[in-house]
Amino acid sequence: MHTFRSGEREKVEIIAGLLQQAGYRISRIRTVDSQFVVTARLEGRTQREGEYDRIEGIVHHFDIEEWITNEERD
């Protein structure tokens, strides 16, 4: 499971959309402490090779303020 936080809703919406297209189940975007938060979970599959690096690239590209992952890195 991955959690993303940003002060800009549009950034969180873009990340959510990209991950949803990649097969992730996306939570409703919510507001916590003046930031927009969304979680993504890859269901029914184990972690795919290179997944962490791909998500890290998206996070850096869109300058997401906080990214938390509960999955082990390969």
Number of helices: 2
Order of helices and strands: EHEEEHE
Find the CATH topology: Alpha-Beta Plaits
Quickly give the structural class. alpha+beta
Beta-strand fraction estimate: 25-35%
Overview of the molecule:
It is built from 2 helices and 5 strands. The chain has helices at residues 9-21, 51-61, and strands spanning 2-6, 24-26, 30-32, 35-42, 66-69. Strands 1, 2, 3, 4 and 5 form a 5-stranded antiparallel sheet that branches. The longest helix has 13 residues, at 9-21.
Labels describing this entry:
alpha+beta, 5 strands, 74 residues, 5-stranded antiparallel sheet, Alpha-Beta Plaits, globular
Tell me the layout of helices and strands.
Blueprint: E1 2-6, H1 9-21, E2 24-26, E3 30-32, E4 35-42, H2 51-61, E5 66-69
Antiparallel strand pairs: 1-4, 1-5, 2-4, 3-4
